[in-house]
Each structure stands twice: as structure tokens, then as C-alpha cells.
Amino acid sequence: MRKYLLEVENLYAYYGKAEILRNINIYVEKGESVAVLGPNGAGKTTLLKSICGLVETKGEIRFNGVEISGLKPHERIKLGIAISPEGRRLFPEMTVEDNLLLAGNGEKLEFVYNLFPNLKEKRGQLARNMSGGEQQMIAIARALMLEPKLLLLDEPSMGLAPIVVETIAEAIDRIRDELGISILIVEQNTQMAFDVAERAYILASGEVVKEGMIESLQGIERDYFG
Ligand SMILES: Nc1ncnc2c1ncn2[C@@H]1O[C@H](COP(=O)(O)OP(=O)(O)OP(=O)(O)O)[C@@H](O)[C@H]1O
Ligand SMILES: [Mg+2]
Known about the structure:
six-stranded mixed β-sheet
């Protein structure tokens, strides 16, 4: 039997009366990296927010076999769901370390500094003085301070040069391989998705229009990007 960490079934999401997601079915197995690809406005962020409990939804969301759609965001975090949000949402006037400490106590710092030694070196610097790639690392490290089982990543490649995207992709691989944390990444940057994920879903106008092993989707995604 497959070990599902996350199962989303027949999910609908709403902002007020506007229906943003329709009949979404996706799953993530334990130890898997899965991508959701889609153009601007497809509903990628709304999907991640639905999993975190930040938007109104209908349908089922199971985590480790437990139905969580009735749970509050902090209760979902406790179960092991953490997000690196779109746009990173750092506190620019705070240091790297203080940004991390917003998500967890000092005992967790060593854990994330082991993964990102670069952040340890620069822990006293203000977040705003860090490069785009480093800022993305901070956003991911902050999510890891929660010691999640599932890490949700909302467009970590945004605004980064291809070489930096590669570095972030390597970090995401290590999070999965060394820490055993499953990954659900949403992206417009197909290279990032192809670098880190084994399977992917293509989301367009709030619906999954294609899914499969990543190799089988290479090239196809262009049909859905405006
Ligand atoms: N707070 C909100 N209130 C009303 N509509 C919203 C809200 N947030 C998003 N939407 C709408 O929901 C749709 C999906 O938005 P969403 O942010 O999930 O897309 P996305 O795939 O993440 O896009 P992007 O790649 O630009 O980040 C869009 O049509 C958007 O206008
Ligand atoms: Mg988005």
C-alpha cells in the first residue's frame, strides 16, 4: 500500500463568492517531491493556502490519513505542515537569525544552520542586505524551524538568476534526501520544477489539466502557459 502524506480530494476553494479552485485531486507520498506548475493566476498560491487553512474550501484534505480541512492554521502547523510563502515575507529590518527565531526557539537553529552554513555565517546581518537567493534560503530555513513533515514552497525561484535557482534546487533536494521531508513546490519556472520533482501537476484556471512523471510533462506545460 502506498504511504500518502498528503491527499487532496475533490477540493474547491473560494474567495468570497469567487470559486478559484475546482475539483482538485493531488497527492504527495512520504519522501516524495511533487511540483504544481501553472501560469499567473492559475491558483497555485490558493492551493497552498488551502492546505494551510488560510482560505475557505470544500472537499477533503488528509494529512497522514487524518482529515484536516476543519483544523485551524496553527493546528496544521503542529501536525507538520510548513510553508515558505510567495514573495518570502521576511522582516527586512531584522537580522537573519531573528527572522528564523520568529518560527521556532533557539534549539532549532543548529538544525537549519547545518543545512545552510552560509546563513550561520551571516546570521547577524539584516535580512534586507542579503541577496535574493539568500533571502529565499532564509524563507525556507524559517519554515524548517517548525520541523515539518511536509514543506510547501511557493515559487522559490521568483526573481532569481538561473544559477541561483540551481543552488536553491540543490538545497531543496537535500531537505528531502537528508531530512526526509516531503516537498510540494508550486512554480512557473519549469526548470526549477524539473530539477527537484519526480512528479508534477499542471494547473490552469483553477483545475488540474495534466499530471504525470516529470519526464512525460517536459514541453507539454508550454501549451498551458499564456
Ligand atoms: N485575496 C483574494 N481575493 C480575491 N481573489 C483572489 C485573492 N487572491 C487571489 N485571487 C484570485 O484567485 C486567482 C488565483 O490566484 P493565485 O494567487 O492562487 O494564483 P497563482 O497561480 O498563485 O498566480 P501567481 O503565479 O501570479 O502567483 C486569481 O484570479 C486571483 O485574482
Ligand atoms: Mg502565486
